[in-house]
Amino acid sequence: MAIPVIMPRQGQSVETCIITKWFRQKGDAVKTGDLLFSYETDKAAFDVESPADGTILEIYYGDGAEVPVLVNVAFIGNAGEIVDPIIAPVMAESGKSDKILESPETKKSAAEVTKSETVREPGDLKIRISPRAKRYAEKKSLNYYNIQGSGPNGRIVCRDIENALSPAQIKRKETQEPTGEFTEQPLTNVRKLIARTMQASLQNSAQLTHHMSADVRKILETRRKIKEGLQNGSEKQDITLNDMICLCVIRAIKKFPEINAHFLEDRIKIFNKVHLGLAVDTPRGLMVPAIKNADDMDLTTLSRELKSAADACKKGNINPELIQSTAASFTVSNLGNYGVEMFTPVINLPQCAILGVCTIINRPVDLGNNTFGFVPYIGLSLTYDHRAIDGGPATLFLKEIKEQIEKFNY
User: Fold this and answer.
1) Domain 193-406 class in CATH
2) HSE-up of 368 (CA within 13 Å, CB side)?
């Protein structure tokens, strides 16, 4: 029996997803776990793996298609097997269609999608149009009010916009526009989200950054012992400098719990547990997964959870609920590996603060008895929302992180 490949629902607020690339084609043999296609929501990018061994019998949506969640996008079965047309999406004469037969499995998805995508236009005219199709129409300066949609419940989809465009309007390529001086590329959904989030953060909060540095001789010595332990077998977990600094941040937060909070305009939500956010640079863009209840973890467990979250982001299979801005209570962003000596991290609202970790620089220091030497110092940049935190407590918190690093032990 043919097995459907379902477009997952990534979070309760996500109603449609965009297929970015198919890695397999109709007729290809696949095994369970093989990568089938990647897709984007308005929050992040993910991959879908094959749910079974078999042959790809049908693919109903191509690259760039916007698909309602919980709808079957393909079928996998035995070679030559016929897919029941009652449960398959309708195929239009001109190619793949976004219209879905309203079987029990798909009727709910279509209703949910159209409910969230119905917008009220001037004159009380209700237009059902997908967000992607709406952006496309606006980019082409196309009036879509009178377009008959071919999507679920008459929803206007991108194909309808394309069919309504004149040859002159569609002449311009959407993917890349080479000219004599430059090229233009459309933003991915993830890049658009990052842009909106960063702009909103700076516009809607009173951000201020304090800079300080900490002596990291003890942390570097601990790191050296751990590396030796990995070689002789006495250590099982590779602990990084960032892991140790995150532990120092957690310890400092316990002494300054007011930092571990969300500013909600008319109130401040102070968390009893530390849900540590970690900024992760991925091929798809910046993601900030949250490590829940990080204050309950020892260094080994914390290191393992940080690495697991970062790997999940890079592979595209992180739980979308963990990358919501509200999932973390405080965030750490480490640019030390890039050689950055000082920077101003941007707060992931509604969080009240974020710590930027910089590179290590050897600085001349008075070692006593009129002796000077070079000591490794790591830069720390704390950005905080002045609406929620005053400069005094913010400085004391940053100083506490410095002291935790300089007296580090585990």
Assistant:
1) alpha beta
2) 0
